[in-house]
Amino acid sequence: MSAFKKVSVVGSGLAAILYCTPAIAESCDYQSIESKPGQEWNEAYGWRYDTSQAANKEERFEENLKNREEAYTKLVKGQSPWPDWFEENDTISLLPVGTLFQMAMAEGQKDEQLGGFGTFDEIHSVSEVREDLAVLQAWKADVNRVNRYRVVEVLPVRIGPIGPQIDPDGCKMLPGRFSQFQMLVAPATRSHYVQFVSSHPIEQD
């Protein structure tokens, strides 16, 4: 039996989809919009997909519900680092020499083993790595420090906002929203473009 009861509310020509939780699910069925992270995503972003123009309220409700479910499924399966409204090809930039940025690092990850993404925001805690950088536990299970790097050779990147992710291990939605850039160079050459500056421990939540 599902632990979630769907309640539909139709008003002002728009369909609102709410989910009640009379019981706690024994496991995280994160792929369903009725799951805990699915509800969190639906509450935060679902309204963006209420785009049906159907004249009939019931048809409008069903179409909007389908839109929400399809958008959520696309996020879960695709795990895009960007919000779905972000046009990736429009934001290719060159970071000049001297640019400083930060990167969350995992236990055992060497300073020269750079990931593909950096941020211009200050990172204080593991919760910020999860919530604001939307880093799944499967990607970096034990974050223990923050490294600062300096660009030493002009670095082609894609800059934009961090989109939400669904974390099955934590059974929650990670909203993102910090700044990020993606290095547009081969992984083996990333260390040629940047230089390690410093490192500091991160607050464990």
> What share of residues are in beta strands?
25-35%
Spans where pLDDT lies below 50 across 5 or more residues: 1-26
Number of strands: 11
* Shape field: globular
Keywords: Signal
Signal peptide: 1-25
Compose a concise summary of this entry.
With 205 residues, this protein is α+β, with helices and mostly antiparallel strands. The protein has helices spanning 36-45, 57-78, 126-131, 190-193; strands spanning 5-11, 14-20, 92-95, 100-106, 117-118, 143-151, 155-161, 165-167, 172-174, 179-183, 194-201.
Please, could you describe this protein's structure?
Helices cover 20% and strands 30% of the residues. It is an alpha+beta fold. The protein folds into 2 domains: 5-78, no CATH class; 88-201, no CATH class. The strands form 4 sheets. The protein has a 4-stranded antiparallel β-sheet with strand order 3-7-10-5, with no helix packed on it. The two termini are 35 Å apart.
